[in-house]
UniProtKB/TrEMBL annotation, chain A:
InterPro entries: AAA+_ATPase (IPR003593), ATPase_dyneun-rel_AAA (IPR011704), CbbQ/NirQ/NorQ/GpvN (IPR050764), P-loop_NTPase (IPR027417). It comes from Sulfobacillus benefaciens. SMART domains: AAA (SM00382). The lineage of its organism: Bacteria, Bacillati, Bacillota, Clostridia, Eubacteriales. GO terms for molecular function: ATP binding; ATP hydrolysis activity. This is ATPase. Residues 33-191 form the AAA+ ATPase domain.
Automatic annotation (TrEMBL), chain B:
It holds the Pfam family VWA_CoxE. This is VWA containing CoxE family protein. It comes from the Bacteria. InterPro entries: Uncharacterised_CoxE, vWFA_dom_sf.
Length: 287, 377
């Protein structure tokens, strides 16, 4: 293993993010080659947390753009401050001649997250979260940013980043992304962690948890993931469940308590019926 | 250790390996841009890569673009660069001193010289490689020692089964043909037809995989096939890589140190087992009877369409009496069949055995003779 990858492993671990070598190698390459990193995987495996951890590790700001259907350039890149322009125009009309070009300067520009990340003096970590939720047009909009780390504003010209930001795109694969977008990014598939790593993650997130309990939680969650649920529990759900179970620890584990706490990992009625059909005792050894 | 040796040689090698690997990935559905190839090269030049696993991890981030490609990449990387037990064997043989004895001809086809390794530092599977090595029976084998074993096995495999039927040559009337001829001629029985000579169908059909991945083992299997053919038994031998060629007559005309059975330009690399089985079924079906023993000598690494294998191999298996799969990798410690071709074929094989040299062949034959093999294969 290269030293750099090991260093990334340690640095991420120190920030509370338990990564494996694949993650560390991807982060190292993204940082080294100045290329965006596209992270795909099931929900709740730590894609967004990776970006947060990177911001913490590198000491950079985190600029986050949450994607949604209908997101466009005016919400992601920049927008002109029309009320301000209008007011200026009225004021100038009263005084005399109007210079239209003076209305399209930085004074009237509202910076949105993407432009903001390019203009920051210290390059931030730019998180473009759940990019597949945005429209395909928005993907095309991102191409220039991801390929060249620049944005072209017709009135102002091309704005290039002094220092390329560390860009992390996440996707839950509810829609296939275009080849053009994939081509500009490095790729990381983040799957459910293996049980030992998941135990480490849970124990790091919930410090008071003893090893036996965390092992039981991880084993039960792993079993549930094999049951073909509509929403299989991710690592985030494991942590929530651990925190819930910790509250009942002193009272001793009963079937009722287990049922109450399972709300942390089972999120639909259909999944509940699957759990019930298997029986709670197959999940947990209840005395 | 072997991996470090590989990587150190890799660093000294030119960029052609990376370019060829990118090309290889493109043929497997990867969208590899030129920029990706450049960055993969740059990473190798800049990073102090400790082993092949790290290379694979770093390159996967660059080359893979979808979850399926992410899962496939490790397999393709290992297949292209051959970093496994097979490769370590090759490396070990490469490190051995040249065993040339004065007055005897060396055997370059059995050991890989260091020069060859340096030229192809990540030695292993490459689609352009197959059959670019001498393909004739191996002269380093002690045929005298193997003869008895081979004869015993032939008696078991290629002996007649069922009732003996005379050939009927020249004497028995072929009533069907007589009737057809007479009807054609207005009912006159003018032509007296008899049965022709009955074709002597083979009892043993051997398919030897001679692709790049079988480079180390193909000479032994050809030697075995040559000895079968030489014994006069009814044997048909086929060589398969990206094509299938019937080599029975060629084996009759060659021998150890004889001319090559297959020329370098006749057959290319990249195993297409599915295609080979398809050709066997469509073109040579007459050889696959209920008396036939079908031997396949292959490591199961296949670059063709898995669908063809699942379509044709069961047909062959049902048609013949028994299917033996000789897998040279089965003797590797800790080996378990992982390739999709093997996983598809093994349920249809009667026996999956590890044979790759004289010793393993003798052991198999001994077990077979002692009936141990049949009781507990």
């Amino acid at each position: 293993m290269t030293e750099a990858v090991e260093q990334w492993l340690d640095r991420l671990k120190n920030c509370g993010y338990i990564a494996d070598t694949n993650v560390a190698a991807a982060v190292h390459l993204s940082n080294h080659l100045n290329r965006p990193l596209l992270v795909e995987g099931p929900a709740g495996v730590g894609k967004t947390s990776l970006a947060k951890a990177l911001a913490k590790v590198t000491g950079r700001d985190l600029v986050r753009l949450q994607c949604y259907q209908g997101l466009d350039a005016t919400h992601a890149l920049y927008d002109w401050d029309y009320p301000k322009q209008l007011l200026t125009l009225r004021a100038t009309n009263e005084s005399g001649a109007v210079n239209v070009d003076s209305l399209y300067t930085w004074n009237y520009l509202i910076e949105r997250p993407l432009l903001q990340s390019l203009r920051m003096s210290r390059a931030p970590v730019l998180l473009i979260d759940e990019v597949e939720r945005a429209d395909e047009d928005f993907e095309a909009l991102l191409l220039e940013l991801l390929g060249e780390f620049q944005i072209t504003i017709p009135e102002l010209g091309t704005i290039r980043a002094h220092e390329p930001p560390l860009v992390i795109l996440t996707s839950n694969r509810t829609r296939e992304l275009s080849d053009a977008l994939r081509r500009r990014c490095l790729y990381l598939w983040l799957d459910y962690p293996d049980p030992i790593r998941e135990m480490l993650i849970v124990e790091t997130a919930v410090p008071n948890l003893n090893q036996n309990l965390s092992a039981q939680i991880v084993a039960a969650v792993k079993k549930i993931r094999d049951w073909n649920l509509l929403k299989p529990p991710g690592v985030a759900e494991s942590i929530d469940w651990a925190q819930s179970l910790l509250l009942f620890k002193d009272a001793g584990m009963t079937e009722d308590m287990l049922r109450w706490s399972l709300g942390a990992i089972v999120k639909t009625q259909e999944d509940w019926s699957i759990i019930d059909s298997h029986g709670l005792r197959t999940l947990w050894l209840i005395s | 250790m072997a991996d470090q040796l590989v990587i150190s040689r890799w660093i000294q090698a030119n960029r052609r390996d990376v370019v060829n690997f990118s090309r290889f990935l493109r043929t497997h559905g990867f969208f590899v841009a030129v920029a990706d190839t450049i960055q993969a090269t740059a990473i190798m030049a800049e990073q102090s890569v400790a082993n092949s696993v790290t290379t694979m991890i770093l390159w996967r981030v660059i080359y893979a673009k979808t979850p399926i490609q992410w899962q496939q990449f490790e397999h393709l990387f290992n297949r292209y660069f051959g970093l496994g037990a097979r490769f370590q064997n090759v490396e070990a043989s490469a490190r051995e001193p040249d065993a040339t004895v004065a007055g005897q001809q060396s055997q370059p086809q059995r050991t890989f010289s260091v020069e060859v390794l340096a030229r192809k530092p990540l030695l292993g599977y490459n689609p352009d490689w197959g059959a670019h090595y001498p393909l004739h029976p191996d002269s380093s084998i002690n045929y005298g020692r193997m003869r008895q074993t081979t004869r015993v096995m032939l008696q078991r495999w290629a002996q007649s089964w069922g009732f003996y039927r005379a050939s009927g040559f020249g004497s028995d009337p072929d009533w069907r043909k007589i009737m057809v001829n007479s009807l054609r001629r207005g009912g006159e029985m003018v032509n007296w037809a008899t049965w022709g000579p009955k074709p002597s169908l083979p009892r043993l059909v051997i398919l030897v995989d001679v692709s790049g991945s079988m480079r180390q083992y193909a000479p032994f299997y050809l030697s075995l096939a040559w000895q079968f053919v030489r014994s006069g038994a009814r044997v048909e031998v086929f060589a398969a890589s990206n094509n299938i060629i019937r080599i029975t007559s060629r084996l009759r005309q060659t021998g150890p140190l004889g001319p090559d059975v297959i020329g370098p330009q006749e057959i290319g690399g990249g195993t297409r087992l599915g295609w080979a089985f398809c050709q066997m079924w469509e073109q040579y079906r007459r050889y696959l009877t209920r008396h036939t023993i079908f031997l396949v000598a292959s490591d199961g690494f296949d670059t063709g369409e898995p669908g063809r294998i699942s379509q044709y191999f069961p047909l062959i298996s049902r048609a013949v009496r028994m299917v033996y799969w000789f897998n040279p990798l089965l003797l590797e410690p800790g080996y378990s069949p992982q390739s999709s071709a093997l996983i598809t074929c093994l349920p249809w094989c009667h026996f999956h055995v590890g044979i790759r040299d004289e010793a393993s062949w003798e052991k198999f034959s001994r077990d077979f003779a002692n009936q141990l093999f049949l009781k507990n294969p």
